[in-house]
Amino acid sequence: MGTNINEFLKMETAGMTYEQIMKSADGNIYYMPGLAFSTVNRAYSKMWINKEWLDTLGLETPKTTQQFKEVLQAFATGDPNQNGVADEIPLVGTVQNPTYSIYDYLIGSFIANNVRFHRLLVNDGAVSYAANTDEWREAMKYINDLTTNGLLSPLTFTQDLASLKQMVNDNNNIVGGYTSLGVQGVAVANNPEIISRYVGLAPLEGPKGVRHGVLSIPTPSANGVITSECMYPEAVFRLFDFMLSEEASTLSRFGIEGEHWVVPEEGALTNYGMPATINIVDNIWNIPQNTMWQNQCPYINRQGDGQQRSENPNDPVRKNCEAAVQYLECEPQNIIPTLTYSLDEIDEVNDIVTNINDYVDTMVAKFAVGELNPYDDDDWNRYLREFEVLELDRLLEISQTAYDRMSQ
Ligand SMILES: [Ca+2]
Asked: Do residues 207 and 54 make contact, with C-beta atoms less than 8 angstroms apart?
């Protein structure tokens, strides 16, 4: 085996080694990985709050769900954009893409919510589901409260990203908060006035002390395979293993040292306040060229977090990283990064998961806007019963089998 792949397989993420993650159900590994470690992308939907409004109204940054609700109420009634008109939208989002999901952010104050992997959790080796729990119901009540009190706009559940962008970038400064992976996912990146308006809000502490960010654990993709027709499989394997080295991985992502990037000066820091390891002087990512492979090959990129920070406090990447740090400190510990299902299992799982995810997304919107009442036992029990039809039990059964197999 190669040196670089061996070292990688021993590394852990969220309680699993990459060897466990990469092994097929038959116990073999069939590919060489492509994986970028990125703190900023690990915190999935980050909340961006209107700091100008907080300052205008003399409000502290909210730390709990209760304080957050009070801040939104003040946003709604205090005319924080100071135009004499009640045109403020305290909180709004879109469900077009999970990285913009406000409700997933809010649910994190009640229960760990594994958005990236079927909302599956594991406690003491037992696989469970998040969206059928009492904690989930409490989250639905909170979200319902926000919406029915005019604090979370119901447009959140119907509008697309373009409409959200229009609201956030409105000249009249009308939005109090939104969620997205990066601040510039919604606010115009090259408009310092709008970018400076929003700051990252850490995950809020819920009434029972729960406080989780929405975590997206990166798992390796299959970026190198050797076909049975290959005449020199061992040589290709050695090449692939070299591609996993820091030298090759840096080349395949950032280009050539001295031309596209340089070693930072002594004392230069990253966006996370650590010593910087790379300073990009000519960014050729996503530009057609023949210098590097743009990660279309095996790679293990650890340099992403090492980039030298911009001196501009309104640099969107810098803001995103500063926000992400606040999410790292409250990562849930009972999340399954991924499960490797067998070929027999995978088709069944895919069908069930597609139906269940659609169902949960639809129901969250209904609970939020009051079409269903999360305070009403009948509504809640009807919601739970549908999981029987959707075969949640079967999903959990197969997932437990897969988890046990991977944990051996
Ligand atoms: Ca106003």
From this structure: no
Q: How far is the CA of 197 from the centre of ligand 1 (A)?
A: 16
pLDDT band at 248 (very low <50, low <70, confident <90, very high): very high
Query: Residue 362 corresponds to which tokens in the numbers above?
Result: 């639809």
pLDDT tens-place string over residues 193-233: 999 999 999 999 999 999 999 988 889 999 999 999 999 99
**Cα 175 to middle of ligand 1, angstroms:** 10
The residues facing 32 across adjacent strands are 224
CA distance 44 to 61: 21
Closest residue by Cα to residue 72 from 95, 94, 49, 52:
49
Could you give the residue ranges of the DSSP H alpha helices within 310-376? 316-328, 343-369
Q: Which residue from 299, 230, 303 is spatially nearest to 260, judged by alpha carbons?
A: 303
**How many residues belong to the chain?**
408
> What is the distance in A from the centroid of ligand 1 to the CA of 75?
9
- Residue 334 burial (CB < 10 Å; 0-12/13-18/19+)? middle
In 204-336 the beta strands, taken as DSSP E runs, fall at 221-224, 261-262, 279-280, 299-301
How many other CB atoms sit within 10 Å of the CB of residue 307? 22
C-alpha 132/C-alpha 136 separation (Å) is 7
Q: Give the integer Cα–Cα distance in Å for 124 and 11.
A: 21
**How far away, in angstroms, is 77 Cα from ligand 1 center?**
8
Q: How far apart are CA 105 and CA 180, in angstroms?
A: 10
Run of H or E residues at 11: none
Q: For residues 130 and 116, what is the distance between their CA atoms, to the nearest angstrom?
A: 13
14-41 pLDDT, tens digit per residue, is: 889 999 999 999 999 999 999 999 999 9
Position 385 pLDDT exceeds 90: yes
Q: For residue 183, how far is its CA from the centre of ligand 1 (angstroms)? A: 23
- Secondary element (H or E) of residue 199: strand 198-201
Which residue type is seen at 382?
A: R
